Description:
Distance between the termini: 29 Å
Amino acid sequence: RDVESSRWSYKNIMLCVQHGAIAGTKTPDANGVGEFNPTGTVTVGQFITVLTRLVASDLIQGSAGQGEHWAAPNYWAAVNSGMIRQTDFTMSELNNPISREDMAFLLVKAAQLNGETLEAHPKAASVIKDYNKISPDRKGYVTQCYSNGLIAGYSDGSFGYADTMTREQMATVVCRLMEYAPRGEVKFEEEKAPVVQNGNYFYESGMVKTET
C-alpha cells in the first residue's frame, strides 16, 4: 500500500517481491495488502538475509533459536558459503545500518557465489572523488560495483561510502545483481566522471544527492 506505481523504485520493488528476495515490513491484511517501507534504513542483517536467499538458500538452516538474532540462520549461511567471514561482520553488528561501502563488499561476494566475476575499470578509482576516504579493504569492492553499474555514484562525483542505504535502494541493487533489471551502462572518459548511457540512471536509481 505504501509504494505507488509512479514511484521511481516501483518496478524494482515489485520484481524483488515477486522473486521472493525481499519481504514487506507489515503482515498483509485480509486482502493480501501489506507495506514495504521503501525509505526505511537497511541493516547489515537485512541485507545479508536478502543475499543469502538468492545465492545461498541451500545453506539456510531452520530458524533463529531462543535469544538468537532473527537473522542468525542467514548469517551462518553467509559464513558457511564463504560470502563473509566472522571477522567481516560479527553477530552483534547485524542491527547496524549498512554503509554503501559494506553493501558494495557484500554485492561483490554475492556475485562471486552466483558465478560472476566483476572486473574493476582501471579508471574507476580516479573518477570517484571520495575514493581515498573509502576503507582500504573496501576500495576494490567499491570500484568493482561502480564499474559494473551495481551502485551508482552521486552527481557530484562522490560515492558516499559511509552513507546508509534505504530499502528501495536495496531493491534496486538486488535487481541489478540478479539481472532482474538492466544494470547501468557506464562509459569512462579521459579525466572526466563516468558518463552513464541512460541519462536517467542516477535519478531513477534514487542514489543521487539532490541539490536544495
